[in-house]
Amino acid sequence: MNEDFTGAVPTAAVLIDGAGIPGAESICRHGVAWYAARLGGSLLSLLSVVPDRGLPALLAEAISRVTDEHRGTCDVTDPISPSATVAMLRLSDGLVEYLVLGDSVLVLDRADGVPLVVSDPREVIISRSYQPLIEATPAGSDEHRRVLRELRAKRNQPGGFWVAKDDPRAADEAITGRCPIAELTGAVLLSNGASRIVDRFRLADWPGVMAVLASNGPAEIIRRVRQAEARDAVAADDATIAHCTDLAAA
Questions:
Q1: Cross-sheet strand order for the sheet of 12-19
Q2: Taking Cα atoms as reference points, which of 95, 2, 99, 96 lies closest to residue 43?
Q3: pTM score, whole prediction
Q4: Rounded-to-10 torsion of CA 170, 157, 70, 50
């Protein structure tokens, strides 16, 4: 099951990359895919009807809404309850506003040919420090679960990393910005399974990715990622791309 979500309305796009670990079923009966879809759907609704609030405020509201939906049936505060990373953009008054929370990636294709890559490195940096322990313990073992739980406990904590989960204050930690629509030829939102083409497998740089998207579309990026995963015996990750074009026409 793909635990990512992506969707768009005429002036905005959202990508959600759901996250969970084994054992979360006992914490939340709904699951990661449910959380990602609910969060994404709530964001799209808010983006459509509340155009005058900032993106962090809309994300905080969406987190609160989804948390309230399952607070009575699930342990929403447990470190392994479902969470998600977020990338979103909105067109408003001649500007593109953007937000990234967690390890999703947003790339703005600028007319001068140098893409602006928006990413939040905190989760990657902290996860990398735990990788030797994760790889040294058998998957499914108590020790493996303990290490994963310890890593997840770094979420939404000062000095840790920030994701959408149960605390709407995480939205204030998002990477945000804006730029004139006239400076852009397009934009792309990628889950970290898709951004592997650049940051893990080094199959292309970001200008190269934008060129492939323009000529062959998102399916070609994902095909190349799947080939690299098979070649290197790397477990496949959900890979989702939202490619936004003709921004000035929106």
A1: 4-9, 12-19, 83-92, 95-101, 175-180
A2: 99
A3: 0.92
A4: 0
> SS3 of 103, please?
coil
Quickly tell me which residue has 């392994």 as its tokens: 80
pLDDT of the chain along its 250 residues, tens only?
A: 789 999 999 999 999 999 876 666 778 788 889 999 999 999 999 999 888 899 999 999 999 999 998 888 888 888 878 899 999 999 999 999 999 999 999 999 998 878 999 999 998 889 888 888 888 888 888 888 888 878 878 888 888 899 999 999 999 999 999 999 999 999 999 999 999 999 999 999 999 999 999 999 999 999 999 999 999 999 899 999 999 998 877 6
- CA torsion, points 170, 25, 140, 160, in degrees to nearest 10? 10
Q: Coil, strand, or helix at residue 44?
A: helix
